[in-house]
Write a structure and sequence with these properties.
Blueprint: H1 2-48, H2 56-81, H3 90-106, H4 110-116, H5 120-138, H6 142-175, E1 181-184, E2 189-195, E3 201-205, H7 219-223, E4 229-233, H8 249-262, E5 269-274, H9 276-287, E6 292-298, H10 305-308, H11 312-322, H12 326-331, H13 334-339, H14 350-358, H15 361-381, E7 392-397, H16 405-411, E8 419-424, H17 431-434, H18 436-455
Parallel strand pairs: 3-4, 3-5, 5-6, 6-7, 7-8
Antiparallel strand pairs: 1-2, 2-4
Helix pairs in contact: 1-2, 1-6, 2-3, 5-6, 8-9, 9-15
Amino acid sequence: MNYGISSTSSITSNEIAAPARSIRKGRISLIVVGSMFPGLVVSLVLVVGPFGGAQEHVIMGTALLGWALGWALLAALSIRWSDQPQRWAVVPAGLMAGAGAGLLVFRPDANAMNLLGWIWPLALIALAVWMALQARWNLRSLARRLVLYPLFVGLVVAGVGGGYETIQEQVDRSTTAMPGHLVDVGGRRLYVHCTGSGSPTVVLVSGLAETSVYWGGWIAPAVAQSTTVCDYDRAGQGWSDPPTSPQDGVAVATDLHTLLDHAQVPGPYVLVGHSTGGAYVRVFAARYPDQVAGMVFLDSQPNEALIGLPDFPSQYRVLRRASALFPSLARLGVFRLVNQFAQDPLPLPARDEERAVVSTASLNRIQRDEFAELPMTLTAAAALTTLGERPLIVVTAAKGAQPGWLPLQDKMTGLSTNSAHRVVPDIDHPGLIHDRLGAAQSTQAILDVVASVRSGTPLTKS
């Protein structure tokens, strides 16, 4: 009788324990998904939400902290709620949390981030391989193949892309000859390249997220046949050293003034600004009016862009946040891959040099900074109220122009009593520099201002 009771009790206990173990084993797949998905979501929410538009170290630091949370959840939940504890997940959680916190605390500058580019790709690949082996040994679930393995492959691809980008940037810099030279502007060096001869000297100021390279395609060689022409790289762009902090229009204008002085480039100058470069030259003219002989605006950003263009405020808000992601994407080699397929009518070798330089994280860092400082730059540019009788030509690309653009372009001619507005109907915004026909129109406007300065005669209105 006792044996029967004992046997019955034993059977009942086993029947209860078996489903419990089955439930615990079945939870591991949900735990994997429920850990990695929050990590992804938290990372995305942080970089596009409260930290949207922040500097590179903040974007990368918060993203790493989000992923660290995901790995920490995997370790904690699997230990507590399954019979397959993934204690190894503590390692990526700790490493990513430490790296993220380090970026936020130490705030590495552009040079430090470039140096880290020689370290983190190999470390990321090694970590991904180690995690894959740990998952294979410790996780018996379809989630290993469907969730973790694709994630590990993604980490390896990111590491390979980051390593390739770091190496290729070094190769580009070491194999591409510097046609100009670097000039000290007070603890930093800026790149300038002057060609041609004669006066007045034309100074070419590039648009946002551009460098001196695109001027060398069509415009600078053509202008150099008639007078001295100089192009340069703003701080952090192309060959120039990075700034210590983001620069607004006043800082950019101050740098340019110091550069021209230290490089012994005689003024006064014909200033040529493309896109946001037009705002920079207006700031320069407002602060150093005696150094300006004439100006050319090539589809220049108007001072009233944020209030006078119906579509621009919303575009700016999107670009302001999106541009903060660009440096991190550039470090993964994303832009270098995309730009290989981009159509660009610049002549060789300027075309290849342009593709290479716009792919770098350094340039994309400056693009983010210039977007962030754009409202202050436009405010500073508005300080220029008149050029008097000094010649000014406004060249506008009508193709693809947003509503309100042409009237604001025409308004800028009011800065001078000796001005002309030339609308190019079949050329778009970048085409005034990149396209041969558009660049010819831009070149002619520059030469016309040079001729007006030399002769003292008014510009023709056509």
